[in-house]
Amino acid sequence: MSILETPYLNLLKEIMTTGNDRSDRTGTGTKSIFGAQMRFDLQAGFPIITTKKVPFGLIKSELLWFLRGDTNIRFLLAHHNHIWDEWAFKSWIESSDYTGPDMTDFGLRSESDPEFKQVYLEEKKKFDQKILNDDVFAKKYGELGNVYGAQWRHWQTRNGKFIDQIQNVIEEIKNNPTSRRLIVTAWNPEDIPSAALPPCHVLFQFYVNDNRLSLQLYQRSGDMFLGIPFNIASYALLVHLIARETGLKVGDFIHTLGDAHIYHNHFEQVQELLTRKPYDAPKLWLNPEKNKIMDFEMTDIKLIDYKHHSTIKAPVAV
User: Fold this and answer.
1) Tally of domains in the chain
2) I need a labelling partner for 9 at 20 to 30 A (CA). Which of 47, 232, 238, 280 fits?
3) In terms of Cα–Cα distance, which of 217, 228, 204, 219 is closest to 257?
């Protein structure tokens, strides 16, 4: 196995050293560079970050959620995945139906006010339970709009029909592997105003050569400390799953970023991470009896020999 996270660590160092100080939508502030690229050889191992623990179970459930075309957080909550909670919770507390304590700027306030944080966590726990147990509430407030699952599997056309981009690209890889149109996009300008969070990873393209499947992702915006480690592992897993269904070996994952940023309130965490020595990358195990992406369940996907440092917590900017 090899040290695969070096491109990620080098990019963190570059942003901390040369990044531009910028304001942002969340009011937190960032250091940012525009235009960056990381390349990972998937033959050398699975590129999950080892300088901190990355919860692979959350990555699996989120990707399976996307691939099922689901856009409601209920599936995620049922698998103890809270990655998307804040955006659904924000819609709830800003609605006329919400009558609880003031949750304005709950992300930032919970960092500096321990008393408020406790109230916020209690409200979010009640929200999550209602999503899991109340069908009507879940349908209204668990829905995130046309996020990745919808765009990947149910892209709506002008004439009201739907396009399954994932199935289409699988068939094209099988039948026309040298095509330069092996592309899936999540960026639909018409849907941006209604989405809980406009797509950050907006477009990816496959490339077949020497019986190996590679993928390049273009991501318009990347939270380098919290989000990007998830994105790297998620798209690496996607390459493996699509390669399995198309009968190919894996090649490279190339991660291209527009605005690559580190939030001001993540600086200490990044500095701590950069003091740690990375471990060799683990291997990915996929159930050999499964060949189609829609047949995979959580237990069919595992990491072997994932050695990592401890978790480093950081607040999510919403």
Assistant:
1) 1
2) 238
3) 219
